[in-house]
Structures are given as structure tokens and as C-alpha cells.
Design a protein that fits this description.
about 250 residues; Alpha-Beta Plaits
Length: about 250
Amino acid sequence: MRFVIKFAFKGTNYHGWQKQQNAHTVQDELDEKLSMLLGEKIETLGCGRTDTGVHAREFFAHFDFDKTIDFENLIHKLNHTTSHDIAVYKITQVDENFNARFDATWREYEYCICTVINPFSAEFAWQFLRKLDVDAMNSACKILFNYNDFECFSKVQTQVNNFKCELMKAEWKIQDDNLIFTIRANRFLRNMVRSIVGTLIKIGLHEIDENSLKEIIESKKRSEAGQSVPAHGLCLTKVFYPTLSTKL
């Protein structure tokens, strides 16, 4: 039987979601605790991968197990055995063909910039005190929708078949002392959101103009885009599955 687990995590103390050698990841901890509580080796598959230090307000992973599960009891035990950086919200049985990674039709990220010194948001927002032209940054966001190849924003030496992403949303909003960038797409490339934000900030500082964004995208060169902004300001906020919208 196949089950899906819905949870959140603070990425500060992890080297991202996905397992890797000589690094502590969220997947390592979740698999370890599930295996211990269910009495057999459990391997999860997540809805995507996050970089070191990136957070997830909503994340999904599926796993296979051939016995029935007391969901409430397992959730309770997971929340008392995993790190306080992880919070499990729901576990439910799904179709055996369900895939947490490939069945998601879109994902949404937020990048938070704090415009004042605030010790209470330091782990979740990049403190950037220079004045930004938010109108220019939002105007530049509209240019992104004219393209679907975002190789210039992808980490180099990434093993993917193509760099095409269907962008559905990209906008900046001012919330009190924060600037929040929200972006939604059917898929994301490694480092894509952080490099887009870094490029838009250059526009907000008037270091480059909006038309330069077209040249950057069409160049397909990572070296032409802005620097990646710090990981701790980035958070995966939503993952959508059309077949599970009523269950999760």
C-alpha cells in the first residue's frame, strides 16, 4: 500500500531535503523515524528537492508499507521523535500509482526580504536594508512570462533533460517591513528562484534595466544573471495535486 505524508520543516540545520553522503538531511531523519516506528525499512520519495537552509511550509512525500496504519497515532509519535524542526500534519493512503514528485502540477515558493534589522525574522528572511524600486521589480516580473526556458537561472552542471518551466505567478508584495516575492510554476530548476530574485534585485537597485532581463534570459548563461540570494529567505509554501486536493 502507498501512503503520503504532509509536513513542514525549518531547513536551517539541514543540508536540504534529499539524502546525500556525509550530510544530514530532512529525508534522512524522516526515513529513520518512520522505519523505527513502523518496524521495517521505509524509504520516502519527496515532492522535490530543496537546497541547504531552505524551508518548507508545505512538503509531501510518499512511502510504501504493506500493513494498515493508525494515522493519528503515527503522527503523534513522529512529532515526538523527530526534531522540533519538523512538523507532521497528515498521513493518508493513496493510489498505488501516486508519485509525490511527478504528480504535482505546480509548486509555489516565497522569498522574504526584511527591510529592517529584525532578530525575530533573521532565520527566515534576508535582511537587506538598501532601498528597492518594487514597481520596477514587478514590471520586470511580467517579462518572465514571455519565456519558458530559464537556463540562465539554473545551477550549472545540473543533470536535467531541459530547462523549460511553465511560469504561472511571479510578483512582489510589501507586507509591513517585508518584501515577499511569490513565484509559482509547474517545475523549478536548481537554484532558479534564488537567482531570479538576485537578478530582480539588481533591477530594483537600478543597476540594470528591465530590458536587460530579456538579454539575460535569451543568453541562457548563468554568468549573466544576478547572484543567488541567501537560502534562508526561501520557503516552499504550496504543492498542488489535482487528484488529492480533497484529501490533503
